[in-house]
Write a structure and sequence with these properties.
By secondary structure, this protein is an alpha/beta fold. Helices cover 41% and strands 17% of the residues.
Length: 264
């Protein structure tokens, strides 16, 4: 298969809906070579998607290919490309924002993304936040996740009185309704670097099932999830999510890591 024909097939695999890919593959399997009626049959097989130019592009590239593969090979290549394109699309990242939204449409809202990730979790949830306040909807979603058997771990910054850097009751106060259904983790003062400028647990992460994660600037507060100007990203690559979650699981290792479960 020539490079140009391969490029055309790869592009079509990305552009065509799944139903069109299946229909075009059936047409291609019925041709040993591109005849005069090929373009018309492709258009008839999958109309309504501005397919005329795409059908012409495929027919031209097939005619000019040297050596010229059979239609069966083109059909298989198109189907394989569509499977790969779908897998890639399923792992693509999304830009996530809070606050004012500009004229760029390719963004998602932080509150909706956090809720979606929690709601779609099946086995584990790792939630890491510096500050936390309010977030009644997030607490409700976490409680429902725990009730359906999801293991929920909350890694939160503590108050100054408990060795953290937050004033007041600390981030855990926002999640009192989860004390019986989630495991809380803290970074005790004895495990933090000594010095005048105390180190803080400042990461913000919501990860589900080692499969999808939200990573960004937003704390779990009502303002951060809706009103502040915040920026983050949804990561759907399981290999990357596993590395992020694995980093925290290492910090949570009993007797070795600096993070410890909060005893109640």
């Amino acid at each position: 298969m020539t490079p140009e024909l391969a490029r055309v097939l790869a592009r079509l695999a990305e552009e065509l809906p799944a139903g069109h890919v299946e229909a075009w593959a059936r047409v291609l399997r019925g041709h040993r070579a591109p005849d005069a009626g090929l373009e018309a049959r492709l258009i008839e097989a999958g109309p309504g998607f501005a397919v005329g130019a795409r059908a012409a592009r495929l027919a031209r590239a097939w005619r000019e290919a040297v050596p010229r593969p059979a239609g069966e090979a083109l059909a298989l290549a198109l189907e394989t490309g569509a499977v790969s394109a779908a897998r890639y699309a399923g792992r693509q990242s999304d830009v996530v924002v809070s606050g004012p939204v500009g004229d760029h449409p390719a963004v998602r809202l932080t509150g909706a993304v956090v809720t979606e990730i929690i709601r779609d979790s099946a086995s584990t949830l790792l939630v890491v936040s510096f500050a936390a306040f309010g977030v009644i909807e997030v607490v409700r979603e976490l409680r429902e996740a725990a009730e359906r058997g999801v293991r929920v771990d909350l890694v939160l910054e503590g108050s100054r009185e408990k060795g953290g850097t937050l004033r007041g009751d600390g981030a855990a106060a926002a999640f009192t309704a989860l004390h019986d259904s989630a495991t809380f983790w803290s970074w005790p003062a004895r495990h933090r670097p000594a010095g005048a400028a105390r180190a803080a647990l400042h990461a913000k992460l919501v990860a589900a099932d080692d499969r999808v994660a939200f990573l960004g600037s937003a704390n779990l507060t009502d303002r951060a999830l809706a009103d502040n100007i915040e920026l983050g990203v949804v990561i759907r690559d399981p290999a990357v999510v596993r590395r992020m979650v694995g980093h925290f699981r290492g910090l949570m290792r009993p007797g070795e890591g600096p993070l410890e479960p909060v005893r109640r």
